[in-house]
Amino acid sequence: MMFFRKKKTKLANSNSNIAITNYLTDGLLVFNSENKLTLLNPRAEMLFEVLEGRVLGKSILELARFERLSPLVSLLGGEIKPMEKTELQIKENLILEITSTPIARDGERINTLIVTHDITREKLSDKMKTEFVTLAAHQLRTPTSGIKWSLGGVLDGSYGELNESQKEILTKAYKTNDKVIELVRDLLDVAQIEEGKYLRNLVLTSIEDVIKTVLESRKQEIMNKKLNVEFQREDVQKIMLDIEKMEIVFKNILDNAIRYTSIGGKIIITLNRKEKEREVEIHIKDNGIGIPEYEQDRVFTKFFRGSNVMRIDTEGTGLGLYISRNIIEAHGGRVWFESKEKQGTTVHVTIPIKERFGEFLTGKFY
Q: Which of 151, 89, 160 is nearest to 119 (CA)?
């Protein structure tokens, strides 16, 4: 009697679990150890436009015959590889986020759980936001450029002499307008990143020359703060870079080092080649204010500015390092940092040595 009661309870729990899957808002597929489909909940039926009765018991490869399931089969492969939150476009107006998790017992896989989450609305919303930012930035670029040109003409005396008070006011207006132009440029860069269209003009060039160009452009700020800047470098061969974008990287990193290092401080830039990894490595070290430890995981996110930075400098978009990280990664490189508050920060950048355009064909080049 006890035996049958236990069996009944187990069956009831099993039916209860199946009932629960019927109410999930995510699509759910379960494959057994032989990669045959054993469960397909109603949400998955709707997303893939298939009936449970037509697909249960079929292998993952057999499911490729169904039009909507074919992209999923291609993504997972015949062995159903594990993956986490991988985007998959099923059709023009349906984008799913796929998570594949093996379920093991005693070290052996007994099932594989596939969760499909519909992110179409989020992706459409992101696209609309990006398009709005692009449109707004383009609309702002023309008038701000016109203001810059007009103020420049007035300040250089093209329209008559100015007294000191007038010059001071117009100079402030000119600098403020320049900050708006910089924000517009950053917003356009962010929009291009999010559209996946970023590297445009890859050429074989010297990364040393790129860094020297940025240092020269920041010469006045360095002199004003009486900073000791050292550039230590090894001979490094030319590599494929988008020069304009890579200048943005080092401008953003160096601007932070210059801005947040005290008068008379020190910045050391090191460039060397890592022969084994076939990459060049750049280190930019300062002895500035550093980054609070509890904020360090947000440094490369959009609009981040450190709390200690905000206390001494209220201006800035918080987009520079986000943009820089994306440029570096688009080149196939990496960026990370080490920092201690009140002791300084060291930013590390690696760029792979690529000498031919063809080596970028699998990367983010548009």
A: 89
